[in-house]
């Protein structure tokens, strides 16, 4: 009986060893599965982090593009305004100089009107003044300085200054009857309005 017990002890030890090995294998498999799950979770978290970074970078890129477009538009507007200012300065640089020359033209016109055309002794003077006046006006025209002589034209408050209103049944109301002083424009901008007399309808009896 003692021998049978001794024979059974190694078998029991072997069985215990097999059991322990099987349990260890199961533990190893569980640890491997847990490690795989942890790795999957980490991979998913990493993918989510990368996607979030990509979205953030795309949003920042869009904002940078918008800022660049705004800056470009502002630069173009500033350049356009500068070009317009330069063009205006170039076109109207002579405005003050023109204003100083207009009284000279007025005096030549008055001198020509004051000369008695019936006097032969003054005819040569009148001819000289007339040629000087035409030359002067022609020189002004080369620099886009134009006369306003609206006799017989409708009254325009943007170009004319009414000095008086006269009843005239032979003319349409608000018609320029006489020009007391001619007006002038520089590149279509008014430098001096024409001073005029304007017709009005006769008062009812």
TrEMBL record:
Low complexity compositional bias, start-end: 69-79
Q: Where is the composition biased (Polar residues)?
A: 20-37
According to the record, the residues making up region (Disordered) are: 1-82
Keywords from the named record? Chaperone, Cytoplasm, Stress response
One Pfam entry name: GrpE
- Where is the protein found, in the record's own terms? Cytoplasm
| Highest taxon, organism lineage | Bacteria
Role of this protein: Participates actively in the response to hyperosmotic and heat shock by preventing the aggregation of stress-denatured proteins, in association with DnaK and GrpE. It is the nucleotide exchange factor for DnaK and may function as a thermosensor. Unfolded proteins bind initially to DnaJ; upon interaction with the DnaJ-bound protein, DnaK hydrolyzes its bound ATP, resulting in the formation of a stable complex. GrpE releases ADP from DnaK; ATP binding to DnaK triggers the release of the substrate protein, thus completing the reaction cycle.
Fill in the subunit field for this protein.
Homodimer.
Q: Which HAMAP family match?
A: GrpE
Q: Which family does it belong to?
A: Belongs to the GrpE family.
- Name-wise, this protein is Protein GrpE
Q: Which organism is it from?
A: Congregibacter brevis
Question: Could you tell me the gene encoding this protein?
Answer: grpE
């Amino acid at each position: 009986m003692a021998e049978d017990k001794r024979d059974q002890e190694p078998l029991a030890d072997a069985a215990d060893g097999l059991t322990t090995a099987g349990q260890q294998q199961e533990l190893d498999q569980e640890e491997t599965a847990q490690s795989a799950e942890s790795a999957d979770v980490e991979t998913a978290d990493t993918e989510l982090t990368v996607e979030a970074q990509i979205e953030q970078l795309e949003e920042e890129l869009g904002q940078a593009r918008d800022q660049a477009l705004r800056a470009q538009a502002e630069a173009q507007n500033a350049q356009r305004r500068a070009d317009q200012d330069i063009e205006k300065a170039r076109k109207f640089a002579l405005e003050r100089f023109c204003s100083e020359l207009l009284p000279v033209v007025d005096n030549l016109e008055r001198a020509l009107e004051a000369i008695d055309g019936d006097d032969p002794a003054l005819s040569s003077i009148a001819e000289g003044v007339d040629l000087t006046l035409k030359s002067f006006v022609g020189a002004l025209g080369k620099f886009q300085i134009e006369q306003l002589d609206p006799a017989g034209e409708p009254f325009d408050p943007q170009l004319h200054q009414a000095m008086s209103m006269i009843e005239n049944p032979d003319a349409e109301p608000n018609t320029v009857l006489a020009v007391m002083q001619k007006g002038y424009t520089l590149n279509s901008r008014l430098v001096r309005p024409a001073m005029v007399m304007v017709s009005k309808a006769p008062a009812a009896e």
